[in-house]
Design brief:
With about 160 residues, the protein is an alpha+beta fold. The chain has two domains: about 55 residues, no CATH class; about 80 residues, no CATH class. The strands form four sheets. Strands 2, 3, 4 and 7 form a four-stranded antiparallel beta sheet that branches. It has a two-stranded antiparallel sheet with strand order 1-8. Strands 5-6 form a two-stranded antiparallel sheet. It is globular and about 55 Å long.
């Protein structure tokens, strides 16, 4: 009997502080400033989850045959009442996926599961978005290890902003 070992596909990699700073700066200058202007309030810059809840989601996803997680860029509707501070702001939705080989290549298909009588997508959302739910700003002279991505943004006639 021939046994074929399937190696896991690794598409990401660890990156440097400089890389993170560069892509965050680019995002702020190219996307965030325009989103903020359109919304009339600061759009979110990040979404935070605990390690425990991410591990729980991954465990549940694996139990349902997932071999990956897709991160969808998304936005809450303007009339989002569950958490009013989230209304209109960006978020990430995590969706469990399973690779499926097609004639045209590999597709990462979203996983749906039975939830009682309903079929539901296996997904996770509603982490803490920043803004509006950011850590308090440090006092002058205090050690602030969360400064990565600080960017000076020219907002035209509205002046400069440090974000």
């Amino acid at each position: 009997m021939l046994t074929i070992e399937k190696k896991p596909l690794k598409v990401g990699k660890y990156v440097s502080t400089e890389h993170v700073d560069s892509v965050i700066r680019t995002y702020k200058q190219e996307r965030w400033v325009h989103n903020t202007e359109r919304l009339g309030k600061e759009d979110s810059l990040s979404v935070w989850y605990t390690i425990e809840e991410l591990e729980e989601f991954m465990t549940t996803a694996k139990q349902h045959g997932a071999d990956g997680i897709k991160f969808y860029f998304a936005a809450y509707p303007e009339d989002y009442t569950e958490r009013p501070g989230f209304a209109g702001r960006q978020t990430l939705v995590l969706v469990a996926t399973k690779a499926k080989e097609l004639e045209t290549g590999v597709a990462n298909k979203d996983i749906y599961i039975q939830n009682g009588k309903e079929t539901q997508i296996l997904a996770y959302n509603t982490g803490n978005i920043c803004p509006p739910f950011c850590k308090p700003k440090p006092k002058p002279g205090a050690d602030d290890w969360g400064i990565i991505g600080a960017t000076l943004v020219d907002r035209g006639d509205k002046g400069l902003a440090v974000i």
